[in-house]
Each structure stands twice: as C-alpha cells, then as structure tokens.
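Question (not urgent): is this output format expected?
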Amino acid sequence: MANSKPLHPIMFAGTGSDVGKSIIAAAFCRIFRQDGYRPAPFKAQNMALNSYATPEGLEIGRAQAVQAEAAGIPCHTDMNPLLLKPSSDHTSQVVLNGRPIGNKDAYDLWRKGKGGDYRKEVCLAFDRLASRYNPVVMEGAGSIAEINLRDRDLVNMSMARHAGADVILVGDIDRGGVFASVYGSIALQTPEDRKLIKGIIINKFRGDLRLFDDGRRMLEDICGVPVLGVVPYYRDIYIAEEDSVSLEQKRRQLAEGKVNVAVVLLRHISNFTDFDTLERDPRVNLFYTNNTSDLEQADIIIVPGTKSTLDDLLELRRNGCAQAILRAHRNGRTVIGICGGYQMLGLSVDDPDGIEGSVTSLPGLGLLPIHTTMTPEKTTKQVTFTFEGQECHGYEIHQGVSDSSQAILQTDRCIGTYIHGFLDNAPVIEHILRDKGKVRSEAFATTERREELAATEGRSVSSDPQAFKEAQYDKLAAHVRQHVDVNRIYEILCNDD
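Got this back:
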C-alpha cells in the first residue's frame, strides 16, 4: 500500500571511505519500499570503477544501481549524475549524466572553485529525482570532515544543505578509533552543517552488543547527537560490493575437490561483481591472484574487465601473468575474458588516438581471433542473449570495438565476451563447470542439492539470480531494522523544527 506522507531526504554520510554507507543506504531503500514509500537513491558524485548501464544505455555507479534495485525501481543517471572512473593515480574519466566527457587531472578537477563547474548539474539531478520520489535516500562520499575540500564539496554537506536533508553519520567500529572519528567528524563541521546531523549509526560491530552500551551513551554525551543503532557485522547476506578494497581479502589458496577459478588481479580491475554468483557456487573455489603459479594450477582463469586495457595488458606481460595464462591454456585449462579481458585475449589492441594513454598498440594473448581498436565513443547498454538455448541477461560498458559481430566468441577452451553479468546466468555457469574432473556431477545434480551443500559452507546459490537478489535485500532490511531505531528515523524525517 502506497504511503504518500512526505519525508525529508535522508543522507547517510561517513566518517571515512568503506564504512558501509552504500549498504546502509541500500537497506533503507528497501525499508522505505517495504513501508509503502517510493524511495530512490542519490549520490551526487561517485568515484568507482564498478559501473552499470541504465535502461537508456547510460552509465552510473554500480552502488546506485544496487540501491535502485533495493528500492524496486529502474536505475537512472539522476541517481548518480557525476561518476569519476580513475584511470591512473592522477587522472579520471569524467562521466556526467551518464556520458563520458573526457579525462581530467585530479588537481584540475578539484582545484579551488572548479567544483562549481558540476554543482549546477548535480543539483538539477537531485531536484528532478526529488520531484518523482519520496524519500530520496542520499549517500555521501568518503569522509564529511575533509575541511580542505569544503568549498569544492559536491556530495556531502553542501548537497545535504541543497536537499534540506537529515544527515545520519555512519562510523565503522571494526577499523578502530570510532569515538575519535565520529566526534571529530561532527566537531569539524560549521555550526550550520552540524545542525543537519541528526543521528549516528555505528556499523560493523563484532561481539556482544551489550559491551557497547556504555560507549553508546558516551558518544551521545560528547557529540550531542543520538546513536540510532549499532549494526553487527554480517556474513550471510550477499550485496554487491562497491570498492575493490574487498578483493585483497579474497586471495584464497587452491582447494582440493573444487573447481579452482582464478580471477586475474589487474591493477585497474573493474566490475568485479561479475564473479559474485560464481563465487557463491559450492562447487567453486574462486580467488583473485597475479601469482603465476596459482594461475597455472587453476582449472579456469578469468581475465576481468579493466578501465585501462593497454596498461593492464602491458603489466600482464611484464609480471609474467600473460605467459602463465598461455601455458595454462596449452595444458588444458579454460580461459575466459570479459570486456577488457576479452580484448586482451585477442590478436591485438590498438589505440591510434591515445584514448587510454601513450601506448598506441600491443599484441594480445592471441587466444581469440579478434582485433580491437579504441575509439572515443563508449558502448553502454543492457543486453539479452541466448546461451545453450536459454535466454540470458547482462549489460555492456566498454571503450573500443572489436572486429567480431558475435556477442560471445568461443574457441577451444576459451570464451570471450563484452557482456558484464555473463556469469550471473545459470546456463553459462553450468557450461563452464561441465566436464571439470573435480566436480562430482551426481552430487550436484539438482539446484536443491547445491543449495543444501552451499548452506554447510555459509554460501548461497540460486538458479534465479533476481529472486536471490530480492531475498538478500529483504534480509539486509531485516538485519538493519533489528539494530537501528527505524521509528526514531521516521520521527526525524517528519520533524519540521
């Protein structure tokens, strides 16, 4: 039943990066939807290599696409009007309202006064969104206490002021120093901005919550802001990650009795959420590596997407991974390339106009009969394709064109495709795991049996990816409802004082 009662916009801001703002925002997108509202996510500026194609064929940050899914609405560029995709330590591709407008140097992008170049666009995007949805669930970026960037801020407190949003500060207790980070983040605000911060959520708590009762009261006393919840760390809810920081924790070893899948850990890896479904399959041990020995011993090697195909291809040759992949393929291993990885597996990659940088041409690994040329135009679209007679879904986001009209190119033990989400489809997974000697096919004959075995390892697998995602959003919402005072948040969002 629809709830038309107007609510203020809400912003989940952070004491730093990777404190869990995106996940908390996704949880509240689902909570508001469950409670009859029509929420929509918003992040004025996102810096990420994980991106997604909207139904209109435009590009936004993956986190806002996930939050839109949690809200039960199609994603739109107004949800993330400014996307920065780092291509080096100092430069980023700027995507404005879903379209790339060129590469910018970090200093030029953020030197004094330059933020205003984009301020009008992100404010207009918010206004359009706020006219259609109630409430808008906003996400900040990094820390709200970067006072040296205050005059250039587009995404934190300046956006909260424009939106008239109630700000909830999220702190990560798992990394330590939560008292200092929360107190300092509030104390460093201007008096005007400090008034916008209406609550605190402590995230990623481990252990007995009762042990933080005193800490909760202390925080409220020193900050003068209520602690609205302490959210425990979870392991059994699967929501797509935004940052590649998490990949460092996925350098698993080879495992006996499973299909070992090695994802090549590229320097500019993008859209690593492509492997979430495969990682959860109980038949699979998936890990990220650039160790040549691990690559050669894996059963399947995946070369993932990248923001800088030529630079990562050059690095693969320099660090020996290219040669290891070729040796593994000669020895009977399967190699899969997705997006930039697909380009690398071809015969050559050419960049005559310097789209990616100073390297104009490199030979590929030669496993697929394609040549790729980088072009200024970017392909962004959602796609439907047929694999082994079944309808499958994914999306494309890539620079460059290859001289093959096939969406999926297969040769002997090698598959290449531009389609992100390729491995989210059950027919594809069954195809690549078929005939692997370590998979006891009779033990995994049914989805029910795979789910039973997955549960024993704390994993989850589903033949219906969309149903699985919906269940995860509901689990996330239930987890946050249990540990956050949602009624108090509604009071805050309705209070006009």
